[in-house]
Amino acid sequence: MSERSESAYERAGVLPIGGSERQQQFSRLLRATFAYCGSVGRPVMDLGYFANVIDLGNGMGMAISTDGVGTKTIIAQLMERYDTIGIDCVAMNVNDLLCVGARPLALVDYIALARYDEEVMVELAKGLAEGARQAGISIPGGETAQLGDLIMGGPNERGFDLVGTCIGLVTLAHLMTGDRLAAGDAVIGLASTGVHSNGMTLARRICFSEQGWDVGRRLDELGRTLGEELLEPTAIYVQEALSLLDSGVDVKAYLNITGDGFLNLARVPAAVGFVLDALPEPPPVFPLLQRAGGISDAEMHSVFNMGVGFCAVVAEGDADLALELLKERGRGCWRIGTVVADPERRVRIPAKNLVSEGKHFR
Amino acid sequence: MSERSESAYERAGVLPIGGSERQQQFSRLLRATFAYCGSVGRPVMDLGYFANVIDLGNGMGMAISTDGVGTKTIIAQLMERYDTIGIDCVAMNVNDLLCVGARPLALVDYIALARYDEEVMVELAKGLAEGARQAGISIPGGETAQLGDLIMGGPNERGFDLVGTCIGLVTLAHLMTGDRLAAGDAVIGLASTGVHSNGMTLARRICFSEQGWDVGRRLDELGRTLGEELLEPTAIYVQEALSLLDSGVDVKAYLNITGDGFLNLARVPAAVGFVLDALPEPPPVFPLLQRAGGISDAEMHSVFNMGVGFCAVVAEGDADLALELLKERGRGCWRIGTVVADPERRVRIPAKNLVSEGKHFR
Lengths: 362, 362
Known about the structure:
Chain A is α+β, with helices and mostly antiparallel strands. Chain A folds into 2 domains: 9-174, CATH 3.30.1330.10; 186-361, PurM-like C-terminal domain (Phosphoribosyl-aminoimidazole Synthetase, Chain A, domain 2, Alpha-Beta Complex), CATH 3.90.650. Helix content of chain A is 28%, strand content 25%. The first copy, chain A, contains 10 helices and 15 strands. Chain A has an 8-stranded mixed beta sheet. The longest helix of chain A is centred in the middle third of the chain and has 18 residues, at 118-135. Residues 1-18 of chain A have low confidence and may be disordered. At the A-B interface, α1, β1, β2, β3 and α4 of A face α1, β1, β2, β3 and α4 of B.
């Protein structure tokens, strides 16, 4: 989750272009901790990728990643429906973990509540458990905090924050760091299930503040209510990603299209860019939001996933097989573009005349 | 952290007495996830202990625990000082992890901000890094979320939540589950550094709402300002705990005295109770809060640590050696009580006429 492009993305230590002096100081302070443990425990990657990996010795690594669902919690409040957002919490975390080639094992949750509310907690647990089932992980623990002076009550006084941290094993020899990408590689996109858990602040502003719609409003393009559309759980790509890895196809990178949309591709450290010249038609919610909010193509593609929630990068020669294997899992997938040589790590979307520059599309 | 006894403690699956139907449902839903992964990845303990442990195969386990600093963040805001609360975040997590016998390796942080604030983030990173140094761990990643519609701005519009998740390795043969305690074992207490990161909602109510003090108020008993006292970072017990384990002393349990105060002792699954008949004189902040707020002994001992931040349980014959080894690390420690046979797992504090009953002292 990343409410705005400033959040998750700007703490990255591997920003294509700079970051402010303070952002760099932030990263330096945390990076200094990499020396505070012995060789077992040392992070094997830099800050800022989708997940990091701790060296466990004997060639094994423990991947770890943390993320929350952002203000999708407010949509849940408006819908008075809390039994699916736990799926989002699992999804946001396991999808990040997959990007380093790890097999997710377990997630702990953190629930901060404006007021103690057992009914909401049980509903949240239903979603967490369903997400865990889909991802094949356990939830061995968690924390619930009642923080009435810190968490807003929101539309129905049941405000809450929901965050997860996921761990998973990876053989260091098969670690995916995004450094093996090369010009000519194929980019395969997997279908999202809607806006997922990103850009909710913008979506809420457009729909509720500007348009004055409410969650119960039925919109013809969506074939359901606005609230149902926005609350649709984030897709969990564990089965697709692991089955492709297990198939023997040489997956060079998995890239989670989360906050910052397609700019996530530029998080790979390899000196490559991306030309996305075959993006699928975005599902109706995206043109609807764009039209209603008068949002530029640049902003749409750097905030929302535009129908592509997760990407795999494989060598050109493996693309057809990878697509075939992924299609067997039943989720939509497309060859959406190609890796190109580019030391500035730009993402281009020719059909929209978009070229990324640092953290934005121009 | 646990803002009130309802929070962390009541989600425990191992409550001494019951828990509501909904709390049990919550635990059942999450416990069902234990079957969603293979043998590698399966939790080896029940929900509700200080940390859980994931089976990694080959006799190794990965301990994991998550906790936040609660509304101590508001004290930081009132003091306009953000460079130490990261230490609390590390402390709350590594101290929990020690309780299963694990060696902490890494922590990821989650920072949720009312508004994006690089200055605060850098200061938070300073504390996180210092905590990591003290604990000998790395901080390989984290998440920052700008959630202006969810996180209150608080006293200076710089409101934030700060949460961590810590992982660490434990040899399953040396796992400490709290089930080996036996009548006659000695309970050793280690000095806290003040209120730590617990009971802050109560402390704030007493000091600010009821007494009308401000953080700059100098109080003779404290020898410093109220704000300095309340913001004092939580002690990190990693060095003491690991050196005692490494010494060969048979440590039967480590128990983190966090939210719920001495009631934390009753989290051990063994059919034992605790008689704390030699508690040290609490440091001045505790009688000050008690007097100012007119708080009962029962509430004081079930909310605050009363000067004892962490406990070790060893066989009676090991007590003197353990005390001697712990004293070498320079932190205050005392033999504070004894384990007794008690299937109801009560905690007794004879000097205060307190006997625990479920989640409360009577």
